Predict the structure.
Amino acid sequence: LPTLALALAVAACSDSTDPAPAVATIEWQRPAATILIADSARLDARALDAAGQPLAAAVTYSSSDTAVLHVSDAGRVVARDFGDAWIRVRAGAVADSARVRVHWDEPAAT
């Protein structure tokens, strides 16, 4: 009977898992500061741990004004209307943002 208790205790200890490493930073290529109306761009972001190693953490995107800029779950940005909006990227408790101005391409003076 003592052997069985010891085996159960060892099995219980071996089932424990280490917590996932925390997100320390987000690496992403910021969008251009200005974008033309109706243009689109693709954002690519990844979460990194404190040692700079990539993590499998989910990355989410959002826009401060979806009437101006729409950002899909996959990071595709579409300029919908004139104005300014902030694009925000988040992974775990870490977030970063960048301001984007949407404008109309005025024809060159001739």
Remarks:
- The radius of gyration is 23 Å.
